[in-house]
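Encode chain A's predicted structure.
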Amino acid sequence: MASQDSSFLTGNLKGVKGIATTENGSVPIYFSGAIGLKAVPSARGMFLYLTELNLVSKGIRTAKGTTGVLGLRLGVGETGLSYDLKTGRATGEIPLILHYELLDRVKGFRKAGTEGEDDQFVPFTEKMKGKIVLKLPPGTQLRAEGAITASLELEMELSSFVLSVVRRIVTSARFRLDWSRFLAPALFLRIQPVFIGRNSSDPTATGTAFTELMKRAVELWDRCGNTNCIKFILNRPIYLSKPAYRVLETKGEAASLRAEVDVADAVEVFVVERMDFTCDWGGGACFSSGTAAAKIVTCDRQLAVPAPCPCPGYCPGTCPPCPPCRTGAVNHYHLAHELGHALNLAHPHDAHGGLVEGTLGSNMEPSGFCCDNPDSQSARNCRSASNPLLFWGRSICRGTPDIRD
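Encoded structure for chain A:
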């Protein structure tokens, strides 16, 4: 939490134009995104810290194929900038995490989580070094409210690669920054529900569990309070009139389902009736965790979880005994858990590939399909949540974390 003398500057970026250098030359690229800064008073005016920088593009063509959704996010919690009060210029070097869907298609995923619930499919990512020039109006000093017009120049060079198809990006933008005293505005994540059925009038359509699962996810992430307020916006559901996807029998079918819908500015949540091939996903999974390409597959059986263990009649012979945890007929907090993966959080003691370790005893505990995901939130989970799709909005998280770590 910032000191009482601190203020925040936050803004959303739209229609940002840039040039991307690939192995075949330079091509135009277009971004949307968000930027956040913390301003702390100093003897010479103020110190500026970059706390949020998200950039999302629908992608570009390369020699290895179309990148698909491409996202960049700040690679550290916050970075100090050198600020000149007289000119209003703030400059610095920043680390950025780069991901695009082509990485998943070519390399697959790093590994599938901990034993007992393989629901975190961690993507390969690349790193870029960025040089940022932020221009505020000359003489800008710390304020409690109001707005200013600012501009941004950003040069990014690939520093650690897997495919190396995007090697350099240069972009610039003009935008509005809003001042906020004490607390930053809320960060919003857009959710795209995808159900199996003809339309909203189809009585057999999947998604019967979604409203309850989403309600509990909203409630759990509202407990972030003033630590790092996370909110969700729901798109209208997309219906797939493809009955074969109602029951997923193989992991290959789950992959084919994910390929059916791509919404560049949202995390897609696919809801099927059930998945018969395994219990080790905990009844669902998040793919490309922590990136703009994150997608979740879950099922309506979350509100009819078999009990007692080990999942009698559901997937005989494949479901291991449950770990010690609270068991029951429902798993209300499953989607809250998977959205935690989408927000770059790993299971406790299982952080890898750039994901941040979730708090022991919190909702990020792996549960296994026969057990409820814990309904506890932690301050550390809230602070660590990140995704290039996050953008600023006005709201308040009224709850407080259950675990203060």
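Residues 307-320, 323-327 have pLDDT under 50 and may be disordered.
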